[in-house]
Amino acid sequence: MSVPFITASPPSSMQQNGPTIEEFISSDDIHKRVLELAIQIENDFCDEKFPLLLVGVLNGAAIFLADLVRAIHRPVEYDFVAFSSYQSGTETSGVVHRLKELSISPAAKNVILIEDILDTGVTLRKSGILESLAEQRALSVHVCVLLDKPSRRRVDITADYVGFTIPDQFVVGYGMDFDQRYRSLPYIGIAAFDNPK
Predict the structure, then answer these.
(1) Which residues are catalytic?
(2) Residue 183 to residue 172: CA distance in whole angstroms
(3) Which stretches within the chain are classed as H helix?
(4) DSSP string of 126-150, one letter each residue
(5) What is the pLDDT of residues 147-166, one digit of tens each?
(6) Number of H helices, E strands in the chain
(7) What is the Cα 31 distance to its own chain's centre?
(8) Are 73 and 46 in contact (CB under 8 A)?
């Protein structure tokens, strides 16, 4: 059974008193890739005797996690954590604050951390979430990202599951934002700033 996705066709470019947004990855392409990732995860964790817990990083990964969970055809638990590393703007502050902890124990479960984008890697590394999951006796800890931006990496970290590898562009949509805007776009767009800082 296919997973329902938003099928509306918004303008391929838009500007709302902010950056110009040009469509980069279509809703259809996202849909297809999410299904492929779901199949890969099902194959890797096919033994249902071992619980599978998906942990989404708020707020950007919420939509990705929701679609991924519905596309995985085996029992799945999910929960969320939240960190703060971006202030207003496009650059990470480099200081990571943990805002929300897990409410479900990861003990004796295979855990996949779900992120919207892996760029510098600072948030995942400095938050200590991967180490914390291991210390809480998770069976295994893996990372799944919708977007990987390796050219921006500042720490040694890689993802086990990658939706798309992209160049160094600031992207929004499908849960990702600029100053809390554009999260609801069904596609991923490149934000072009007239006066970049």
Answers:
(1) 119
(2) 7
(3) 27-44, 62-71, 122-127, 129-135
(4) HHTHHHHHHHTT-SEEEEEEEEE-G
(5) 999 999 999 999 999 999 99
(6) 4, 10
(7) 14
(8) no
Nearest to 54 by CA among 133, 123, 119, 121: 133
User: Which residue is it, tokens 């391929």?
Assistant: 12
Angle between helices 27-44 and 62-71 (to 10 degrees): 60
Q: How many CA atoms lie within 13 A of 16 on its CB side?
A: 8
pTM of the model: 0.86
Token look-up 């892996």 returns: 118
Show the tokens assigned to 74: 């085996």
Distance from C-alpha of 35 to C-alpha of 31, rounded to nearest angstrom: 6
Alpha-carbon torsion angle 32, 163, 64, 192, nearest 10: -100
7/179 Cα distance (integer angstroms):
25
Q: From CA 76, how far away is CA 109, in angstroms rounded?
A: 10
pLDDT tens figures, 35-60: 999 999 999 999 999 999 999 999 99
